[in-house]
């Protein structure tokens, strides 16, 4: 393997179980019947997961893990006793204590026991999937948990974690309106989370939601109304002191999710569990390695049964491997980097590709700066620019190809 500058990887762990499937969801997860044999299935899964994570840490000679993100699915469906087993086993595998460790929870399944165990084993941050405080909207998307559960869970999280948590809110659900959105943000702010992910709804093909909309059973807000609501929510968050630090993410001072920042800045990470992906980048002191393969994306097959069956056997077979060229990594670095309010990591970008973002796309940056859509100090978009990120990327990628002579 080419020499690495640092064997530093973040770690994403996928828990592919949910209480029930939300209508809009395109993530890989399977419903877990909490009553019948859940502990046994979950325990077997966690056993295999530990083996998988251990194999990857060994295989890639990982010497430092700055951040861990346990997502899903719904990690809070793990019974507290199994969670303690898993966190304990995980801690023993790690080469160091991570600076940031996030666990996702959902209101219908999280409880004080689970949160206390998170705290005891070093989880630094909780991410709560709220989505909306409106019961009618929750039902329309088949989201588990009632509004009372949402309040109860947020109170419990705030009691145990203070402000060290984030909440997800979706804008543009079927049947919503500006008053509902205003109430969602207002309710959320009562709990003072350090960060908020405020997303526009994406209707993924072949989901039950897409089918209901196609059949006329549900109706999305108009594009204008969805935009108006997003701006309304953004302004409420801003007025409450939240800074927009990414296209859909807001935080109070010190509340940015460092794990996500590392994705946006194309730092390598390992992924474990069905459907999880990881990105290995062969950095060297002089840039990226001399071989034609500069990186590898590993994606685990989205099949929990196959994962359990493979058990402690041939893991590489469950991870599909895509080779990443320098051109591919450069494009991804632009696409990911300009999502973030600080832009791509200029020093890392230059070391990897031999050119800074500013030298790669000078005309695009200049034009966007003149319109107040790019920051004057660094190659990055302003918050107004982030709203037009797709348009920016179209121009930036075209100019990058011209600069590099690859168009
Ligand atoms: S809880 Fe999250 S992962 Fe589970 S079905 Fe709903 S959106 Fe998907």
The share of residues in extended strands comes to 15-25%
- Outline, from the CA principal axes? globular
How many extended strands? Answer: 16
First CA to last CA: what distance?
31 Å
Query: Average pLDDT across residues?
Result: 94
Radius of gyration: 22 Å
Number of domains: 2
**Which consecutive residue ranges, at least 5 long each, have pLDDT under 50?**
1-5
Q: Which structural class best describes the helix and strand composition? A: alpha/beta
- The helix tally amounts to 16
Characterize the main sheet: 9 strands, mixed
CATH superfamily of the largest domain: tm_1862 like domain
Note the quaternary state here.
single chain
Helix fraction? 40-55%
Kindly describe this structure.
- This protein is α/β, with parallel strands linked by helices and about 400 residues long.
- The protein has 2 domains: about 10-260, Alpha-Beta Horseshoe (pyruvate-formate lyase- activating enzyme), CATH 3.80.30.20; about 335-405, no CATH class.
- About 40% of the residues lie in helices and about 20% in strands.
- The protein has a 9-stranded mixed sheet, sandwiched between helices.
- A hairpin with a 2-residue loop joins strand 9 and strand 10 (about 250).
- Helix 1 packs parallel to helix 2 (about 80-95) and helix 2 (about 80-95) packs parallel to helix 3 (about 110-120).
- The protein is globular, with a radius of gyration of 22 Å.
- It starts with 9 loop residues before the first strand and ends with a helix.
- Bound molecules: iron/sulfur cluster.
């Amino acid at each position: 393997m080419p020499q690495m500058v640092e064997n530093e990887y973040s770690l994403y762990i996928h828990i592919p179980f949910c209480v029930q499937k939300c209508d809009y969801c395109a993530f890989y997860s399977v419903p877990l019947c909490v009553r019948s044999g859940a502990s046994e299935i979950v325990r077997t899964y966690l056993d295999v997961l530990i083996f998988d994570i251990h194999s990857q840490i060994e295989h890639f000679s990982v010497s430092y893990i700055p951040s861990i993100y346990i997502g899903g699915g719904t990690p809070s469906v793990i019974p507290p006793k199994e969670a303690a087993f898993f966190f304990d086993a995980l801690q023993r595998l790690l080469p160091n204590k991570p600076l940031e460790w996030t666990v996702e929870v959902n209101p219908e399944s999280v409880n004080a026991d689970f949160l206390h165990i998170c705290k005891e084993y070093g989880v630094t941050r909780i991410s709560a999937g709220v989505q909306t405080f409106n019961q009618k909207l929750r039902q329309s998307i088949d989201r588990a948990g009632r509004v009372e559960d949402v309040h109860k869970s947020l109170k419990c999280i705030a009691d145990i974690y203070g402000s060290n948590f984030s909440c997800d809110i979706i804008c543009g659900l079927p049947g919503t309106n500006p008053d509902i959105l205003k109430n969602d943000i207002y309710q959320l702010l009562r709990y003072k989370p350090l960060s908020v992910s405020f997303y526009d709804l994406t209707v993924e093909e072949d989901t039950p939601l897409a089918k209901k909309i196609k059949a006329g059973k549900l109706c999305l807000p108009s594009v204008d109304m969805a935009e108006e609501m997003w701006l309304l929510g953004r302004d409420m968050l801003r007025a409450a002191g939240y800074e927009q630090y990414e296209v859909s993410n807001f935080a109070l001072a010190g509340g940015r999710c460092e794990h996500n920042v590392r994705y946006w800045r194309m730092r390598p990470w390992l992924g474990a569990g069905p459907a999880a992906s990881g990105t290995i980048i062969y950095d060297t002191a002089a840039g990226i390695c001399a071989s034609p393969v500069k990186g590898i994306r590993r994606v685990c097959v989205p099949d929990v049964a196959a994962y359990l069956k493979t058990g402690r056997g041939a893991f590489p077979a469950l991870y599909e491997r895509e080779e990443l060229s320098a051109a591919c990594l450069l494009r991804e670095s632009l696409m990911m980097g300009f999502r973030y309010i600080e832009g791509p990591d200029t020093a890392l970008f230059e070391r990897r590709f031999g050119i800074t973002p500013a030298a790669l796309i000078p005309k695009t940056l200049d034009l966007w700066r003149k319109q107040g859509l790019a920051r004057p100090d660094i190659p990055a978009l302003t918050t107004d620019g982030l709203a037009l990120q797709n348009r920016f990327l179209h121009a930036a990628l075209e100019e990058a190809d011209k600069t590099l002579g690859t168009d």
